[in-house]
């Protein structure tokens, strides 16, 4: 996370606390896409993602007047969104929650192809998009919070209430699995590797 | 840094979370180990590729509902507070300006009239004058002592030299007498 954004976040939060509603629009605009993309990937369903997205911001709006910057705003926001998504998953599917806890994946047979070579193919971004959606939730969560939400691994570890090594392990497995998925479905429809649902 | 440590720290390096020392060691290893460099470049490419995946937006209705709720629930503050926050540079500047003006006024004391010498000032001046006089007296005494000393030295020089000259002349006469006696013998 760039330092100037953190400074701007704090400035806008303070302005909103002083009654400047326009400052909230700026905060919202900045985090709208990363947070929604994160929730959409986590929940896999647009309508559920919309609901959780709205719930998350409503919680933020209620809590903002008393918010003190003990943690960065983005980290705080993603923390609320993450827990709302977990609640939603828990509500709808016990199986999905079990999947979230799963980290034991087959990471053998790593091909030496570079991601650039794969991504240069037609519709490669869409394939990657779909592949991320097929990652186990624990890995998907780390990938999206780090690379879309621009949260640090330390912040992710705090949100997920686990060690930073666990988060780094999930990131490592996520990239290995993405690579396998993309390489296995070259020229075909996406094929999910055994052990990855 | 070993290859194992390099791999453990790769993602932390990309997210800028390594401390300076570890980052330096990481860069050193990156510059020397081609296998690790290849693995790092691959991880870095994946990060860029995932980052580049287009993001999704919620529906407009969702956005409108959230922004409306934010307006409705925005903390209520008085117009004066809001103005002060919006113009906080000015609101911080006014007290600073007032404090500066106060300091200048205290230093210059424009209300201060030239005062008559206070009692302690007169006493101090008297004491300084007395000390000056005493110093003058001491200097005079020193001068007088120096004159006396110089005269005594001169007197000693004159008397002492004549006595010594006379003694030497007497010794010479004694020597001449002895020489003559020796010759006659």
Keywords for this entry:
heterodimer, A: 197 residues, Rna Polymerase Sigma Factor, Chain: A, Arc Repressor Mutant, subunit A, 10 helices, B: 185 residues, mainly alpha, 3 domains, elongated
Short description:
The complex is a heterodimer of chains A (197) and B (185). By secondary structure, chain A is mostly helical. Chain A is built from ten helices and no strands.
Please outline the helices and strands.
The complex is a heterodimer of chains A (197) and B (185).
Chain A: H1 3-17, H2 21-43, H3 46-63, H4 73-92, H5 94-101, H6 115-119, H7 124-133, H8 137-147, H9 153-160, H10 164-184
Helix pairs in contact in A: 1-2, 2-3, 2-4, 2-8, 3-4, 4-9, 7-10, 8-10, 9-10
Chain B: H1 3-14, H2 20-32, H3 34-52, H4 60-72, H5 79-86, H6 88-108, H7 119-184
Helix pairs in contact in B: 1-2, 1-3, 2-3, 5-6
Protein model, in words:
The complex is a heterodimer of chains A (197) and B (185). Chain A contains ten helices and no strands. In chain A, 71% of the residues lie in helices and 0% in strands. Chain A has two domains: 3-97, Orthogonal Bundle (Rna Polymerase Sigma Factor, Chain: A), CATH 1.10.1740; 105-184, Winged helix-like DNA-binding domain superfamily/Winged helix DNA-binding domain (Arc Repressor Mutant, subunit A, Orthogonal Bundle), CATH 1.10.10.10. Residues 101-112 and 189-197 of chain A have low confidence and may be disordered. With 197 residues, chain A is an all-alpha fold. Chain B has three domains: 3-55; 76-108; 122-185. Chain B is 82% helix and 0% strand. Chain B has helices spanning 3-14, 20-32, 34-52, 60-72, 79-86, 88-108, 119-184. In chain B, helix 1 packs parallel to helix 3 (34-52) and helix 5 crosses helix 6. The longest helix of chain B has 66 residues, at 119-184. Chain A binds chain B through residues 15-21, 24-25, 28, 32-34, 36-37, 40, 49-50, 53-54, 57-58, 61-62, 65, 114-116, 119, 125, 128-129, 132, 143, 146-148, 152-154, 168, 171-172, 175, 178-179, and chain B through 8, 11-12, 15-17, 41-43, 45-47, 49-59, 62-63, 65-67, 69-71, 73-77, 81-82, 85-86.
């Amino acid at each position: 996370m760039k330092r100037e954004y953190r400074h701007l976040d704090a400035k806008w939060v303070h302005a909103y606390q002083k009654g400047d509603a326009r400052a909230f629009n700026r905060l919202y605009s900045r985090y709208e896409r990363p947070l929604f993309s994160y929730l959409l990937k986590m929940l896999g369903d647009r309508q559920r993602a919309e609901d959780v997205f709205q719930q998350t911001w409503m919680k933020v709006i209620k809590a903002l007047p008393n918010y003190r910057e003990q943690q960065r705003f983005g980290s705080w926001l993603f923390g609320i969104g993450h827990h709302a998504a977990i609640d939603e998953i828990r509500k709808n599917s016990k199986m999905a929650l079990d999947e979230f806890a799963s980290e034991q994946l087959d990471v053998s047979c790593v091909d030496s192809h570079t991601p650039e070579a794969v991504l240069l193919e037609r519709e490669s971004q869409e394939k990657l998009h779909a592949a991320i959606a097929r990652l186990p939730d624990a890995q998907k969560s780390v990938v999206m919070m780090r690379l879309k939400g621009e949260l640090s691994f330390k912040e992710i570890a705090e949100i997920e209430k686990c060690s930073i090594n666990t988060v780094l392990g999930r990131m490592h497995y996520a990239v290995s699995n993405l690579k396998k998925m993309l390489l296995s479905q070259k020229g075909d429809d996406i094929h999910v590797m055994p052990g990855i649902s | 840094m070993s290859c194992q440590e390099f791999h453990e720290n790769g993602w932390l390096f990309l997210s800028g979370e390594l401390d300076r020392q570890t980052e330096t060691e990481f860069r050193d290893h990156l510059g020397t180990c081609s296998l690790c460099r290849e693995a790092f470049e691959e991880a870095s490419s994946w990060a860029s590729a995932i980052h580049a995946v287009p993001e999704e937006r919620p529906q407009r209705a969702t956005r409108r509902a959230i922004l409306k709720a934010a307006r409705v629930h925005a903390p209520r503050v008085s117009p004066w507070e809001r103005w002060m926050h919006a113009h906080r540079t000015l609101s911080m500047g006014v007290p600073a300006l007032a404090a500066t003006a106060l300091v200048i006024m205290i230093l210059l004391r424009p209300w201060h009239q030239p005062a008559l010498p206070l009692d302690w000032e007169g006493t101090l001046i008297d004491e300084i004058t007395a000390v000056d006089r005493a110093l003058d007296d001491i200097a005079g005494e020193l001068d007088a002592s120096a004159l006396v000393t110089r005269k005594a030295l001169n007197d000693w020089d004159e008397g002492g030299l004549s006595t010594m000259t006379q003694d030497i002349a007497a010794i010479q006469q004694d020597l001449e007498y002895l020489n003559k006696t020796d010759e006659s013998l």
